[in-house]
Amino acid sequence: MQQIAQFETIPAPMGGINAVAGLMEMPPTDALYALNVICTQNGPTVRPGYVEWANTLAGTGGVRTIIPVRGAGTAGAQDKLFACTINGIYDVTASTTSPTLVVTFGSQTGNAGYCEYDFSVNAGGDVNLLVCDEVNGYYTYDCNTSTWTQITQAFTGTGSSSGTTLTIASTVSGTIQTGAEVYTYSGTTLTDTGVHVVSGTGPYTLSGSPALAAGSNIVIMNTYQVWGVNPATLVKPRVFQGFVWFVQGGSGTAYYGLAGGGFLGQFTPFGWGNKFPHGGNLKTLEIFTYGSAFGTYTYLVGIGDAGDVLAYQGINPSNASTWTLSGQWFIGDTPAGRRFATNYGGDLTILCAYGIIKISSLFSQQNVDDPNSHLDKKIAPALAYDFNLYSTLWGWSLVPWPNQNSLMVLEPLQTGITYKQWCYNLATSAWTIFNGPPWQHAGFWHGALYSGTPD
After folding, report:
1. pLDDT, tens digit, for every residue of 281-291?
2. Where are the alpha helices (DSSP H) in 306-422?
């Protein structure tokens, strides 16, 4: 009898999970399920292993934020790794079982420990880490001096006058500014010099020429202070075109500092929420660079919690002629927290009710409701199921993993529910799932990915 068997080549499932195609129509390169592997160009490989780096960090809820820092020192001398819990910020630069608590939060409740950060570099090359905690406000870390500082609010108010004398109802020492005038205070003489330092205890009685009038807006500022906004309300920093921006929690307003990267001093409000057609608060500010036949442009992108997206292009937000609204879109609800967007793969990637979209597709006028244009198109039903269940929980995060050429999607951790992280390989467009250990946040530092766990 003639043999009728024949050989068939079955390729490795390097295409990853396919939750869209019917079982009988699924390509042989795809998989129903792929656990703890990364689908590379050469086929699935086992995900890298892991080892504990630092433990015994105190605080209910475990490690909520990882902050990798690369300073300006040679041979990594100023590099640091920090981990944030509800209690404060720990130095975990070295592997340890007794990490140092370098910042103790004044309020250790609610969403404390969910921090956002960015970096400001001064003219001398000194790197300053800017951190905003969801509950405790604004902190800085100077890489050159290894100093943490909580930023406080300058005294603002007015004075009462009697003749040519103005009494400021403050016992704060510091720098005085009123309007566009800057004064030096020494003894009882007030001199218009452009620079001034105030010493002693108040209330201050100032006289001299030019005299200050009652009702003048007065600011007395010390080192590491800001005015124009209460720094305790700031929840996210973002450095854009030489300006330091901050999102104010529970509002539609952002604040920007002085040109040249000033992260202290006077901050000016800029309304985003009043331009959101669907209302809601401003959740995050991101940066996107877009190239076309007409040139390359960099945009500051604001995303609201109701799903509105605005993109501004320009170099100075205080000058209408050089600061313009260049785009406006709607992407549906975004998950709780502020970590649903990240720059990776040459794009700004956003997790929203429609799925995982690239903002470049919005600029090129692609349909946001077309799943074929989304990063998650092969796992869309599975991810949408999780999003609908858990979008109101904190813990969603998009995390780049450069040395694996991958993007991680971290889901919130729920009691009694198997934890899950989605892994997307940019080279093969393949999705897989990790389920250990549970990650609350992660950061890439010195060639490795560091993650914080709830225990």
Report:
1. 999 999 999 87
2. 359-363, 380-390
